[in-house]
Specification:
CATH class of the domain at 54-213: Alpha Beta
Helix content: 25-40%
CATH architecture of the domain at 54-213: 3-Layer(aba) Sandwich
CATH topology of the domain at 54-213: Collagenase (Catalytic Domain)
Shape: globular
Order of helices and strands: HHEHEEEEHHHHH
Distance between the termini: 93 Å
Structural class: alpha/beta
Number of strands: 5
Length: 237
């Protein structure tokens, strides 16, 4: 059946209006299922971490501080952070290559006792062997004797003592012209108080030389040199 011309025109106009309305965007609350199907937001990337100023590669030959490795690293790192120097650490082993990149790295070798003739020199806590590639040797049994039986039995105190011995030797490695001082971190013999005392031994006299050796700017004028940091005892991190 054919509709009258006027009726057909009205019907076409109504269809056109309906189509236009359907084409307009409408605000619709999404269903939970639709939300779950959306791609997750891209994770926010952290800013790149600051590169360390000095790298240390630890060779714990006899697994002497396996359970207290973190305490040992934190103690040495804290001493150098007070000088404005950031240290980076990694463990060494067979096949480890160090010093090949742009970062200056120093190997740290932990031994239970000194080799050869050094075995009888029980007052030597650590040294840098001459006429050999730069490295720090630390003799753990000698450090234990220096701090006493009770402190040596406390793994945390032993780790702190080793950390301070390593810090002493690192300064020697970076700034051999400094020599020893009458007191503080660079005194000739670190006694029990210096090794496990509640205050870190003063290292203010080392700061300028250590920073210069690492090509770091000198401390800003008016900024006091790092004094001995007072720690809770036994120190915890």
């Amino acid at each position: 059946m054919e509709l009258p011309r006027r009726s057909r025109a009205l019907m076409l106009a109504a269809l056109a209006l309906a189509s236009a309305a359907a084409a307009e965007p409408r605000e619709v609350t999404p269903k939970a299922a639709d939300i779950s199907r959306r791609a997750p937001a891209a994770p926010v990337r952290d800013l790149p971490a600051q590169l360390p100023d000095l790298g240390l590669v630890v060779y714990d030959v006899h697994d002497l501080i396996q359970s207290r490795y973190t305490d040992f690293v934190l103690e040495t790192s804290a001493i150098f952070r007070e000088m404005g120097v950031e240290t980076g650490w990694r463990r060494g082993g067979l096949g480890t290559v160090h010093g090949a990149g742009p970062l200056r790295e120093i190997p740290v070798i932990l031994l239970d006792e000194g080799p050869g003739r050094l075995r009888s020199q029980r007052d030597v806590l650590g040294l840098i062997p001459k006429d050999q590639p730069p490295a720090i040797w630390v003799f753990v049994d000698n450090v234990k004797r220096a701090i006493g039986t009770a402190a040596a039995a406390d793994g945390h105190q032993l780790a702190v003592a080793l950390g301070r011995v390593v810090a002493h030797e690192i300064v020697h490695s970076l700034a051999p012209q400094l020599g020893h001082t009458r007191s503080g971190l660079m005194r000739h013999s670190l006694d029990r108080q210096a090794l496990v005392g509640t205050s870190r031994p003063s290292h203010a006299e080392c700061t300028a030389a250590v920073r210069a050796a690492l090509n770091l700017a000198p401390p800003a004028p008016g900024v006091p040199a790092a004094a001995a940091a007072v720690l809770p005892f036994p120190p915890r991190y």
